[in-house]
């Protein structure tokens, strides 16, 4: 991966990269492969080099692709995966070291502004695009998903993992807080004390344990990860589109809602399904499906 030259106007007096320079790098050179097959879009981050560390050439094009395809009415499902035998090792340590040097320079006037902009607009932009995407986003995780890479996976609507996947919440080991939504995701999955314990140890969570904890929804042999992602993507595409999109919104809101608020949201959403062609078709075929259930119950 080669870095694109950064215009002098995007560098400070000490030569540090500013947010505009990082953005320009990502817009000039993409390390995200987009594969479109009908109503499905696969986004492949990196090629396995450096375990798909989140350099601008990955993060900026990924955000832009998620924003584009997430609002494309012709896209029904998005699959997010890493190139090679890794999902992503997380943030780029070289960029972090540069930020430390910059903050220690008494002549630098940027302070934490560029760091904040990068974290909010790009890292945060990726997870917000996943959450706001009308199409469900499936993470297919092989190998490590660490730090912000883990945050990207946890932001997805479901995760299918290979048996060699590792979820690595190692923020504390490098002196950082859980970021980009991981404090929210891990606390809801593990409880406050469980999330705090993971922060303290920073120990990787193997695929089988992640399944037991509810952090991933399926674990398969590495050679079968692509087929498993295909199966989940097929399930998404087989669902009535309008009801599925409403369900994604309802479930994400329910995580922060009271029971009463969730009930009211469902009451407003349900009538919207009644006017869809998918619902009308399902009602016509439901009696046959009910007979299948009755036969199953009868043994």
UniProtKB/TrEMBL annotation:
What are the EC numbers?
A: 4.2.1.17
Q: Is Lyase a UniProt keyword of this protein?
A: yes
Q: Which CDD domains has this protein been placed in?
A: crotonase-like
Determine if Lyase is one of this entry's keywords.
yes
The record, for Pfam families, names: ECH_1
User: What keywords sit in the KW lines?
Assistant: Lyase
Q: Which InterPro entries match?
A: ClpP/crotonase-like_dom_sf, Enoyl-CoA_hydra/iso
Question: What Gene Ontology molecular-function terms does this entry list?
Answer: enoyl-CoA hydratase activity
Q: Which domain of life is it from?
A: Bacteria
- Which PANTHER family does its entry note? EG:BACN32G11.4 PROTEIN, ENOYL-COA HYDRATASE
This chain's protein is named Enoyl-CoA hydratase
| Species name | Patulibacter medicamentivorans
